[in-house]
Amino acid sequence: MESAHIAVDLGAGSGRVFVGRFPADGRFLIDEVHRFRYPPRESDGHLRWDFRAIISEIKRGLALAANRARELEVSPATIGVDSWAVDYGLLGSDGNLIADPVCYRDARTEGIPDRVFGIVPKSEIFERTGIQFLNFNTIYQLFADDRFAGAASFLLLPDLINYVLTGRRAAEYTNATTTQLVDARTGDWDADLIIRLGFDIEKFPPIVPPGSELGFLLDGIAAETGLGPIRVIAPATHDTGSAVAGTPLGRSDAYISSGTWSLVGIERESPLIDERVAGENFTNEGGAHGTIRFLKNVMGLWIFESCRREWKDQGINTDYARLLDEVAAVDGYRGVIFPDDPRFLNPPSMLGAIAAQLAETGQQMPDSAAGVAKLIFDSLAFRYASIISTIESLSRNAVGSVQIVGGGGRNDYLNQATANASEKKVAAGLIEATVTGNLAVQAIAAGRFADLAKARACVAKSLDLKEFSPLIVPGLHAAKLKYAAIEKRFLG
């Protein structure tokens, strides 16, 4: 029978399970079998993830994947799990989870980075790890966690799920790098940094490369799901790591992984660590099969989706397609915001946070949902263009074109606005990039492909990308100048 692979893809609040196939005819096929939600909730004084619910839904998804495989008359060969980065769970000496994992949007890390820098200088942390400074990086979460000292070990979210599935404790490389505790040059935990911060190095699991086999599905879960003995593979367990792995990038392409967060970057063969990179707060995250993801985080469509929730509560029609049509009909530029303002991370009201920033910069809040949405999309496009320009300067290489992958690639208005702002050709269409990369790394581990290049070539044959060429539109130049001034104000 033809082999199939099962991908579990977890975003920060919702997850999906897919069955993927790479038939001999060169096509790439995926079937979504389960979709579920698990919003974080307040518990025990913190914003937490309901881990039991996540595991329950994963097992349900695996059972549905087993049924779908039987319908397709294919044989499931492997399972791979990816998720968002930085969050983790603590295990006790009995091997059980001590408490539900805390969400990275929790406020517990406020003021923590400065305390960490008092022990190890900020410049030294970057020189060692090459990772950008975000208040919710695992390094600061662990420092703020009053239960870490009493724990036997910790596992990042996808590693914790793999532990439940197989019983093996391991840290997959791409996700481990986001902790800001991995030596960028060796790819292993930076023991000196960890010990100086007062962490017990014995609590850190061994790092394994993407594509590693973690073992077979535990007997109980194998029976419960109907999958039987099936191998569990660690893909690039960081969702962006999988998204980039699945993207058939050209040598001069930049990528934008567009979703709740937007990750704007290029693929490199080695880290880029120097004072200029540190000053721009770029990051060197581990990639699949010997690559480095040189990129920067942008607050992304979280801003827009938060507004949509508020509009829905106000009784405003928030149908996505209809709203995008209304956005396209709005003339000119009604204002711009700096998307990476920390106030947008988890405000009580996103609309209120936008209005406050606009007031501070002498602008007025648009009087319609479409006007606000357009302002958000235009501002994201300007931010993307600014980062791409900085990438060219830091890497001393020109970016030829941009590939937008992920769910945000459905947003034609934002795609065109990005082409206009960056003056680069933009291609979009690989919506399920993360799932694609997850499945590709599994297929390589199973022997279907010799390497990442051959897996990407198969994916490329199955894509029908939509291209957006840069256009000169009325008011664009003035809006870019206005955005640049606002960005400069917030970045200092």
Spell out the key features of this protein:
seven-stranded mixed beta sheet; Nucleotidyltransferase, domain 5; single chain; 18 helices; 2 domains; alpha/beta; 39% helix
What can you see in these coordinates?
This protein is α/β, with parallel strands linked by helices. It folds into 2 domains: 2-238, Nucleotidyltransferase, domain 5, CATH 3.30.420.40; 248-429 and 462-492, ATPase, nucleotide binding domain (Nucleotidyltransferase, domain 5), CATH 3.30.420. 39% of the residues lie in helices and 20% in strands. The protein is built from 18 helices and 19 strands. The protein has helices at residues 51-72, 112-117, 122-129, 138-144, 157-166, 173-176, 191-196, 219-225, 239-245, 275-280, 302-313, 320-328, 350-360, 369-395, 412-422, 433-445, 452-461, 476-491, and strands at 2-10, 14-21, 29-37, 41-43, 46-48, 74-82, 88-91, 153-156, 171-172, 207-208, 212-216, 231-234, 254-258, 262-268, 283-286, 292-298, 401-405, 425-428, 466-468. A 7-stranded mixed beta sheet has the order 15-16-14-13-17-18-19, sandwiched between helices. Helix 14 (369-395) crosses helix 15, helix 14 (369-395) crosses helix 18 and helix 16 packs across helix 17 (452-461).
